[in-house]
């Protein structure tokens, strides 16, 4: 005889708040897990993302993005990635998103204009089951699928962006519950510095948390009282190494909640 599984919330019993948020049961509460990777950590702390070895540079104004791939097989009828979804913020920091059909190394313009790109993910793929190349969102001239200025990257094999960067939408406050830095290298005894920074709207980047740990390990930070980030704040995680060349990752967990005044 089969057994029907019911959630305990369906019979009015207690269920952890975090699980209810994850299940979308609490109005105006949203969960976020953001992950970033950097294959070449520098000696000064820099943004954990898949772009250059310099800190991430944000768009100065909302703009139409060009979506392209380094591989011609990432196209609407190809064996690689066929469609991607872009999640971001408009000129007023309101959440927007759209689905884009890829055209290989030829750029496809977004319909929306983006002030921030918060996430970029592969939605559908051909027989290969994954993106064949690196997928970019950016502006400027596109050469072999690479835009002149890059604002988001899906590395090969990820099917999602790898950047420990996120901006709080207008009308929300974000609460970070934990974050983690990792680093690996074949060279022993390297000292790694992890930094969590944020920039409130109209302000400057300031350090919210920092740590030091040895290469080949990780550092977890759990906030007994979550760190609050006001609307339109930019949030980044950074890594630095005593010797350049380490590979590292960073991730953070956030619940962002609609402000009472904007309900």
Features:
1 helix; four-stranded antiparallel sheet; 16 strands; mainly beta; five-stranded antiparallel sheet; Jelly Rolls; globular; 2 domains; 263 residues
Could you please describe the fold and organization of this structure?
Strands 2, 10, 12, 13 and 15 form a five-stranded antiparallel beta sheet that branches. The protein has one helix spanning 17-22; strands spanning 29-38, 46-47, 63-69, 81-89, 95-101, 108-114, 116-125, 135-143, 146-154, 165-167, 172-184, 191-199, 206-214, 218-229, 234-241, 247-258. It has 263 residues and is an all-beta fold.
Q: How large is the share of residues in beta strands? A: over 45%
In helices, the fraction of residues equals: under 10%
The low-confidence parts are: none
| Average pLDDT figure | 93
Ordered list of secondary-structure elements with their pairings:
Elements: H1 17-22, E1 29-38, E2 46-47, E3 63-69, E4 81-89, E5 95-101, E6 108-114, E7 116-125, E8 135-143, E9 146-154, E10 165-167, E11 172-184, E12 191-199, E13 206-214, E14 218-229, E15 234-241, E16 247-258
Antiparallel strand pairs: 1-16, 2-15, 3-6, 3-8, 4-5, 4-7, 8-9, 10-15, 11-14, 11-16, 12-13, 12-15
């Amino acid at each position: 005889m089969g057994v029907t599984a019911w959630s305990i919330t369906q019979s009015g019993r207690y269920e952890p708040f975090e699980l209810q948020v994850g299940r979308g049961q609490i109005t105006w509460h949203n969960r976020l897990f953001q992950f970033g990777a950097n294959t070449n950590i520098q000696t000064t702390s820099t943004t954990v993302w898949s772009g250059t070895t310099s800190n991430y540079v944000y768009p100065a104004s909302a703009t139409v993005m060009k979506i392209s791939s380094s591989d011609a097989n990432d196209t609407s009828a190809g064996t690689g990635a066929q469609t991607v979804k872009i999640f971001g913020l408009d000129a007023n920091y309101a959440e927007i998103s759209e689905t884009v059909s890829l055209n290989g190394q030829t750029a496809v313009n977004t319909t929306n204009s983006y002030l921030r790109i918060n996430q970029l993910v592969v939605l559908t793929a051909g027989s290969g089951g994954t993106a064949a190349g690196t997928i970019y969102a950016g502006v400027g001239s596109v050469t072999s699928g690479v835009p002149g200025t890059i604002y988001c990257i899906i590395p090969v094999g990820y099917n999602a962006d790898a950047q420990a960067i996120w901006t709080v939408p207008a009308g929300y406050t974000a609460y970070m519950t934990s974050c983690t830095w990792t680093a690996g290298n074949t060279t022993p005894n390297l000292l790694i510095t992890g930094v969590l920074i944020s920039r409130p709207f109209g302000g400057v980047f300031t350090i919210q948390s920092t740590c030091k740990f040895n290469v080949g390990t990780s550092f977890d930070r759990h906030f007994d009282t979550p760190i609050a980030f006001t609307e339109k704040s930019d949030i980044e995680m950074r890594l630095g190494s005593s010797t350049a060349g380490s590979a590292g990752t960073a991730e953070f967990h956030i619940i962002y909640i609609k402000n009472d005044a904007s309900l």
